[in-house]
Structure formats: structure tokens, C-alpha cells
Write a structure and sequence with these properties.
It contains 1 helix and 18 strands. By secondary structure, it is mainly β. The chain folds into 2 domains: 160 residues, Pnp Oxidase, Chain A (Roll), CATH 2.30.110; 58 residues, no CATH class. Strands 1, 2, 3, 6, 9, 10, 11 and 12 form an 8-stranded antiparallel sheet that branches. A 3-stranded mixed sheet has the order 14-13-15, with no helix packed on it. It has a 3-stranded antiparallel sheet with strand order 16-17-18, with no helix packed on it. A hairpin with a 6-residue loop joins strand 4 and strand 5. It is globular and about 65 Å long. The N and C termini lie far apart (57 Å). 23% of the residues are buried.
Length: 250
């Protein structure tokens, strides 16, 4: 038997959510929050989602070599595929490619657009284990969604979203874990609360008050009554507007 297999590190993604927003919408400070300001939820999603790269690799060999001499790997082209089942604002807006619904013939006729770009967040949850999110700041529907209107099962609307270059130097798709799976990271900031929290998410708390000297407070004004963060030695600290102090704000 293996001495290295560790089921606590395995993930079974049993839950999740998807959201969309106009390109340029602020990315939430906490991408794992239950609701995301400015982002519309897709609602029910059938069987999760898949994230797939397409990548060209060119291998070169030489006459007097033994195997591949050099290899060129092109940037990956990423696609996210999922199937929402709720006719939510997010689902209908995506299906219509930026089009509209017009009052016509006793109902609302769909007038699809030619193309549309939008931002996308897809999240997976492994209960009791962890969370993951995929952020696409600029994406577009790869092809029109198929419709299945029958009594066999809940109707779904298969969507395939291409991740586009956001144009700001970032990757077209950004995977985000809720914890640092490569090891601990020292905190660089502290956010007020009861209790407050350290940033980045999952960071190791400073050992004691003396170790708070390089921590950036948020907000930078004096924290309000009752706010604090818990340090590594179980003591509390707060920001008074000028320096870190022991205890809770009053």
C-alpha cells in the first residue's frame, strides 16, 4: 500500500455555482462569497462544468541528435463548458449573445445578437475539503446553445465559453483555490472585523504584536469598536489609525 495517498487532499466536487457580468465589472474581493455584487448567477447547473485547454506543441528534431532537440509550446486556448437548467437572467443573456427580448405575438420574441463578450466566474465546492474558482475576465460563447424541449428530464442549455485575452497582461483564465495548496504564506494585510481576517486568504497569522509591523491595515483609518484580528499566539490586535495595538478597538 502507498504511504503517500492522502484522501484529505482529494476533491469530490459536489456543488458549485456560475456567474456572469459585463466585461470590466470589478472582480469580488472574496470570489467565494455566497453572492457577488454586480454578477448574475446562472442558478441550477447540470453535472458541474469542464475546463479544457487546446494547445499546439511543435517538436523539432535534428539529424545528429537523440530525440526532441527543442520544443515550442503555444499559449493555451481555454474553453469552459457547462449546462445551466434555470432560465435565469444570466442563462438567457448568454444564450441570446447580447440580444434582447421583444414583446411580440403575445409573448417575448428572442432577438439574438451577433456576438457578445462577458466576464465569467465558475466555482466548485468539495464539502468539508475546499473550493475552487475559475475567473474569465473576457469571454464569448463558442456556438449557439442547443435546446431540448421534452418531458424526459429538466431542459438544459449547453454552453461553451471561450476565454479571450483580457488585454491587461493577465491570463485568459485564472484558477483560484481557497487555500494555498503549496504551503503556508505569510500575511501581508489585515482586514477589520469581529473577528477580522488576514490577506491573502489562507495566510499564516503573524506570530505576535511585534510581527504586525509590516502588515497593511484595511481600512487604514482607525478600526471601530470591537474589531480585531487574532494573532498566532492567540492574542488580539487592532489598528488605531497610526499603529497596531494590543486588544480590541474601542
Amino acid at each position: 500500500m502507498s504511504d503517500h495517498a492522502d484522501p484529505s487532499k482529494a476533491r469530490w466536487w459536489l456543488d458549485g455555482d456560475g456567474f456572469r457580468a459585463p466585461v470590466g465589472t470589478d472582480v469580488p474581493a472574496d470570489i467565494f462569497a455566497s453572492s457577488l455584487d454586480g454578477w448574475d448567477a446562472f442558478g441550477g447547473i447540470r453535472a458541474g462544468f469542464t475546463v479544457t485547454p487546446e494547445q499546439d506543441v511543435t517538436d523539432e528534431e535534428i539529424w545528429n541528435g537523440n530525440g526532441i532537440y527543442m520544443s515550442k509550446v503555444d499559449p493555451a486556448k481555454w474553453t469552459i463548458e457547462f449546462e445551466p437548467v434555470d432560465l435565469s437572467k444570466a442563462t438567457v443573456g448568454t444564450i441570446l449573445r447580447g440580444g434582447s427580448l421583444t414583446s411580440l405575438y403575445g409573448g417575448y420574441a428572442a432577438e439574438p445578437g451577433d456576438s457578445e463578450e462577458f466576464a465569467l466566474i465558475m466555482r466548485g465546492v468539495s464539502p468539508g475539503k475546499g473550493k475552487i474558482a475559475f475567473l474569465v475576465k473576457r469571454g464569448t460563447l463558442s456556438q449557439d446553445a442547443a435546446w431540448a424541449i421534452n418531458a424526459d428530464n429538466i431542459s438544459g442549455y449547453p454552453l461553451s465559453v471561450k476565454a479571450l485575452d483580457p488585454g491587461n497582461g493577465e491570463k485568459s483564465i485564472i484558477p483560484i483555490f481557497d487555500t494555498n495548496l503549496l504551503g503556508s504564506v505569510d500575511a501581508t494585510g489585515a482586514t477589520a472585523g469581529i473577528p477580522g481576517s488576514f490577506t491573502p486568504s489562507g495566510a499564516t497569522a503573524p506570530a505576535n504584536l511585534a510581527a504586525m509591523s509590516d502588515i497593511t491595515a484595511s481600512p487604514t483609518t482607525g478600526w471601530t469598536t470591537g474589531q480585531y484580528v487574532t494573532l498566532g499566539d492567540a492574542s488580539k490586535a487592532y489598528w488605531d489609525g497610526d499603529s497596531w495595538e494590543s486588544g480590541t478597538a474601542s
